[in-house]
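Problem 12. The chain below contains 617 residues. Write out its predicted structure in token notation.
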Amino acid sequence: MGTAVDTGEVIIILSDDEDAEENISFSDQSVVLVEVEDVKKSDSAVAPVALDEDLVITFSRRAEVLPHARYDCPIHVFTVTDEIGAPAAGNQLMCDQCFCYICDKLASLCEMWCCSGLCHCNSHKRSDFWNNLRNSLLLGGLQRFNLTLSELDSHLRHAETMLQSFKLRLSAKFASFLRGETCGPSDWNPKGLVFNYAPVYEFVSSFLNEADQQEGRAAAVLRLGAAEVFIRHFQVSGSYISHSPTANAVEGRLVLLQRVIASVQRQMVMSSLTPEFIHKLQEFYQKLFFPPELRHMKSSLCVRPWDDVLLVSVLKGQNVSGVRKDKGKKDLLIEQIAVVLLRTELLQQQHRYRELVRYLRVVESDDSKLLQQVRDLIPFFFCLDGSLPGGLHSLFPAVNAPAARLTPRLYLFYLRLFTTATAPPLATVRVSGSAQVCFSDAAWQPMKDAVPLPADVVVRFALRVQRCCPAVFADSQCWVSLLQVVNPPAAIPEPPLKFLHEAKDVVGSILLDQRGSNVQIPRSFQEVYPDQALLLLVTAALGQRILRAALSPALPVLNTLKGNLWALGWLWDSLSSSPERLGSFSQELSQEAGATTDGDNILGFLHSRASAPSSST
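Solution.
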């Protein structure tokens, strides 16, 4: 309500009363009253006017009106109507700050303001017709993504412009492909036409490269918007096709769609897209036309958001089965292998190793072989979390032990982890056909809360791996590294002959005990001479390796014992139980030494040992 005073000022009074006229009443008007610079009281003061018992006007000034929709204009009354063909009473009037609700620009610039058949001056936000028209004009192609105007920003508006231009140019490219290229008739090409999809493929690839440079949401919209168009491309029936890999429209379309899916999947898992926006992308993708040969890819973007109930419960350790029942329906944690690898990468980057272990233990995937390779690295994730005993234990589960599939390189990696409690900086799992640990050549750094494992625990680990992994058992460098664990730079004092003699029986029983996969070292064997006992145990295992098959190169392995020649002599004596194999091993050493001088001292010692009677017998 308001009144006028003698000065001619217009007084606008905002009231909580709800008895205003219906034709100008909106719950969220766009009129804003802004305070301007204070003026002198003598210039604006008016005589007090009593309007009623509760309100007295003592001061007034003209309000500054900001830009507003026509239906919110405080100067010209707006009439709410369903009429669209002609202006309703007074709706065509406008002030300097009136905006067209449909065009989102000044009403004076609207070309359809009073246009017969569709008068924008009648538009208002309480009408579904006008709202749909406004969304269609302002959202353009983005309306197919079910976006709202509140979600639009400059990046998405630019993406919509790019997408419209791309569709027009792609249409011309594909039309040129359908016309074919003339190359002259021949026996194998009577029509003399070549239908080469490669130019179309290159054009789409170039556009996807541009999309890669855009902001997250805009990039996703550009990728899926492009897929909506090229997924309908087809190869001309019965045509001659160029031999280029991307010349066939069917094959080129598949490669392009795979690229789009991989990029959008990565955004869904790795970026900060909201679950609501991801759901809109999924709905858009599901509505695409998929030709028969691509229908198996229709569910490729069915990616669980990080706040999914089942996924969250698994990560927190509240669900160890990966199964959840909801209203009688069973929900299984099954994800595409590409999604599993992306989650693995992100959880590593965030140092959430314990959650990663929980996830990998229960998730199932469409590629069980590759999933198993990633699961085999669970011990590595335990170690990165600071739990070396946990990592060691997870190498030897009762069923399907990862230790049985260790490569020599990965065995050496774990051996160093367990003995030093250090790891290379930024060590991560990378997958390119197979899962493997990748790290830089930078110096290894201590792992938080990790403590090196005792030497006897490391020896038991190594011997257990040798039992179940032939590749590690046969590798020469693996033996060098293990001997270095029990053979420190400083020489170990030689134990009494009695201990050396008794050690043969003890280590023999340890190495020959095949009951279970564990290796038991009697406590009594380590009580008096712990360092010597472990060195003899590993040396005896090496002797079994030499007796079983040729070891090449052998000299680097034997050189690790040159600081403790008594252990080397003990090894040589143990090999004498098989004179034939000992003779062939000696020949192998001689041939190997012919190409190097590193083994001269070792060979000299062994030759003298061979000519002398055994001291241990």
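Discussion. The radius of gyration is 40 Å. Students who got a different answer should revisit the alignment rule from Section 12.3.
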